[in-house]
Amino acid sequence: MSYNSNSVNISVEAPIENQIQEITYDGTEIYQPPLTLSESLAKFAQKIDFSKSNELDIKKDTDEAFEDNKSDSDSKDAFQSSLWPWDSVRSKLRSALQEVCVLADVLAIAKEKRYLVLDPVQQEAVETKPMVQIYARKKALAGAANVLLTGAERLKTSQNEILRNRQTPDFHIELLRLRQNWRLKKVSNSIIGDLSYRTAGSKFFQSGMFEVTKAEEEEKTSSPPSSPAPGIAQVSKSNSSLRVTVPSELQGVAYIEVLCQKDQEDLCSVNLNLLGSGPPTANPEVHWQQKLEAAQNVLFCKELFNQLAKEAVQLQAPIPHMVVGNQIMATVLPGIQLVIGLCHSATADKKNQQTAPAPSKSDHDHVLEHSLHQLLREVHHKNTHHPFPHPSSAPLGPSKKRYLAGPMAADRHELLEMTHTETLLEQIIKQAQHFFMRMRTEYVLDTIAKEVKDPLISSHWNTLNSPTQSCVKINISTHGYDAVCRTPLVIHVGEKSLKCICRDGKVMHMSYEPQELRDLIFCHINQHQILAVQALAKTMGWQFLGNSNHLGLGSVEPLGNASSCLLGSPNGDRVIAVRCEPQSGVQVSVAHSPRTDFFPSRLVTERKWEHLGGQFRDVRLEKMEGRNFLHKMELLMASLTSNS
Amino acid sequence: MSMNRSLPQSKEALLKSYRTRLKDDVKSMLENFEEIVKLAKGEHDTQLSRMTRCEQDTYEMHVRAANIVRAGESLMKLVSDIKQYLILNDFPSVNEAITQNSKLFRTKQAECDQKLMSLRDDMAADLYDLEEEYYNSINK
């Protein structure tokens, strides 16, 4: 055995003396039997700590052990049974061998210097001084602080921008305003509003949804295309922080155009106006309130027109109503049509709209448009406001009369009558009819007043009237003789007829033809003249000999009858006969009796016969002095009285 | 109508979510701040080299600071959300506004009616005189 190691010396030899196992009482020492070779090898091998030794040692040791193993391989068989104490050694050796093999390989490769180069490794870690670490930390903290500060700054600036830079209140205040005026609700992430008249009782199918968004986001997306004009962006910014998106079918301006036209003459021009109204100039910079109001108006007009069109189709009129495109035509009176059109332009520019319909020939009737709006609103109101008391178990809606129909045992006819309601179209047609009746009455009265100068015809329109009924009071009097005689007339103008209440309480019904009224007025003028002459005669002291309102004599009048009266002078020697004809006017004749000069003839021998009355001679009234007929008559009577 | 019935539940959930958002954000602010302070102390032994450690700390601090900022902005968003919620669901105030509006419009209506009535009366009187004058004159 060769020992070239300097760390662990393995002595295979037994010590000189055996270890004492026991000392007996008599002093004899009992020695342990010396270890056999293999026993001692095992003992020493167990002492080796392979992990502690460095590589070279290990190598040596393993080499050694290898050799030992080899040397002892022959004696291995003897130790087969006692494998256990050697097991750890074996496993350690094997792992050591593996390591050594790897090391040997690495070394072999490193030696070649073709595949692997070994560099010297800095053994000492870089010693960082504590100050450096502190600086690093400080820097890190400063960086963190910077992040925080910029974040805070951003918040602050945004807040400041809202508070100071904007003239308009911020989004939430605007939203609050909007909420106070319109119905809004939140659906997931967006705010949806409702501008329909549902809550007010409308049953229109179209919904009036609109969306509310913040303006800034929109501006960001919309400003790049409109960037050439920075002023626009400025304007929209100062406008509002809120943006309202209305569905396209509700955008723009709409109104109901109501035209009354005679015959078909204006139809073409109206159509042209409808088509060419308003160039499409989009104007998104309108304030949301106006925008929403316009949209609501569009919705309202659509509902109104829809309702009217439905009724126009359903109604059974003698002359059927026509619905063409967005126009409804209904015949009001013979030869007169009511045209209701829905004008809806997708532009938000109102000025263009209002100037466009102006040149149309038959101008738009604002009153009827207004009453159409009123009618629909009334329908809405009725839908929500049911008459009291509300039954707890019956459906709401039927009228009070229908609730009572059961207890009162109403029959089918009555029930049918109850369900009959006037449609909007019927009502508006009635109003239009009344409008025309009124216009015609006015026209007739004015023309008569212009034509007939002698008795003054003054008409006073009653200020209290309804859309389908009005009243006019007519006074026929003579200038200067108001106190002597006046003929009052009252005319009720209805929808399709006139009702005239005459001086004597007679009631006359007339149709829509203006000629009837004209004739009636002329008749009354005649009557007035006769009555006025009679009244004047009384004041003059003349005698009223007789009169006839319907004279059967003379030429046949085209309208009415001539009326006449006879007046006698106070001392009876003169007689005035007045004949009034509606068409040809007044004729006055005078008769003297007796004549101032008497020549007896064969037939009339005595003067007394002259008292019977003489020949009537016509008075040429137009040559007479006097402002009017009554004045002339007064003068005539006065002259005849003084002559006698 | 079925929407309305399910509304209270969803609203309850929404309010709860607002509360949790508030708590989460505040907690995140606090935690991140604490972590930054802890990092600033810097007493930990790891196998990493010190330079790496420093870099990591710097980075972590930045991230945590950004987290605080994010939580702050989230709080701002929360505030705006709550405002919006309040505005949209504050029915008493809406009712009040409606009542006020209707009152305003009613007074306006009464005012207008009154003005119109007086105007009508004036016009009627004047019209009567004018009619009288017109029909009595010769120039018609």
UniProtKB/TrEMBL annotation, chain A:
It is found in: Nucleus. Belongs to the Mediator complex subunit 17 family. The lineage of its organism: Eukaryota, Metazoa, Ecdysozoa, Arthropoda, Hexapoda. Component of the Mediator complex. Keywords: Activator, Nucleus, Transcription, Transcription regulation. GO terms for biological process: regulation of transcription by RNA polymerase II. Residues 215-234, 383-402 are annotated as: Disordered. This is Mediator of RNA polymerase II transcription subunit 17. It comes from the Eukaryota. GO terms for cellular component: core mediator complex; mediator complex. Component of the Mediator complex, a coactivator involved in the regulated transcription of nearly all RNA polymerase II-dependent genes. Mediator functions as a bridge to convey information from gene-specific regulatory proteins to the basal RNA polymerase II transcription machinery. Mediator is recruited to promoters by direct interactions with regulatory proteins and serves as a scaffold for the assembly of a functional preinitiation complex with RNA polymerase II and the general transcription factors. Its main location: nucleus. One of its GO terms (molecular function) is transcription coregulator activity. It comes from Agrilus planipennis.
TrEMBL record, chain B:
Its main location: nucleus. GO terms for cellular component: mediator complex. It is found in: Nucleus. Keywords: Nucleus, Transcription, Transcription regulation. GO terms for molecular function: transcription coregulator activity. GO terms for biological process: regulation of transcription by RNA polymerase II. It holds the Pfam family Med22. Component of the Mediator complex, a coactivator involved in the regulated transcription of nearly all RNA polymerase II-dependent genes. Mediator functions as a bridge to convey information from gene-specific regulatory proteins to the basal RNA polymerase II transcription machinery. Mediator is recruited to promoters by direct interactions with regulatory proteins and serves as a scaffold for the assembly of a functional preinitiation complex with RNA polymerase II and the general transcription factors. Belongs to the Mediator complex subunit 22 family. This is Mediator of RNA polymerase II transcription subunit 22.
